Amino acid sequence: MLTFRNDAQSCTMRIQQMANQIPLDPDSLLTRDQTAVALTEAGFPVRSATLATKACRGGGPDFKLFGTRPLYRWGDALAWAQAKLTAPRRKADQCEAA
């Protein structure tokens, strides 16, 4: 007998399968969802929707298109995230006024 999962269960299972998927090779090509998961696992929480927005508006990591599907080189995505970090701070008063 076949059983079918609902969409929420399928999505949860897919995310769990992608978890702990930080590539060892910086030349690995990842889909947008895989890139978001890998960056989050590496300590840079970002959502796939944020990467999609930045792909349209600019300011995100470089990507290539395979047909209509964006692919991100892991090394480029990680370098982009690391470049977003500020310098180390010891006190809150070192924050710049916005």
Task: Give an overview in words.
The chain has 98 residues and is an alpha+beta fold. It has a domain at 30-85. The chain is 43% helix and 11% strand. A 3-stranded antiparallel sheet has the order 1-3-2. The chain is globular, with a radius of gyration of 17 Å.
Number of strands: 3
SS-based structural class? alpha+beta
DSSP helical segment count: 4
The averaged pLDDT comes out at: 85
Instruction: Tell the overall outline.
Output: globular
Helix and strand sequence: HEHHEEH
Strand content: 5-15%
**Terminal Cα span:** 60 Å
Major sheet description: 3 strands, antiparallel
Low-confidence stretches: none
Strand order in the sheet with the most strands = 1-3-2
Helix content: 40-55%
What's the gyration radius in Å?
17 Å
Write the layout of secondary structure elements.
Layout: H1 7-18, E1 29-31, H2 32-41, H3 48-57, E2 64-66, E3 69-73, H4 74-83
Antiparallel strand pairs: 1-3, 2-3
Name the descriptors.
98 residues, alpha+beta, 4 helices
In summary, what is this structure?
The chain is α+β, with helices and mostly antiparallel strands. The protein has helices at residues 7-18, 32-41, 48-57, 74-83, and strands at 29-31, 64-66, 69-73.
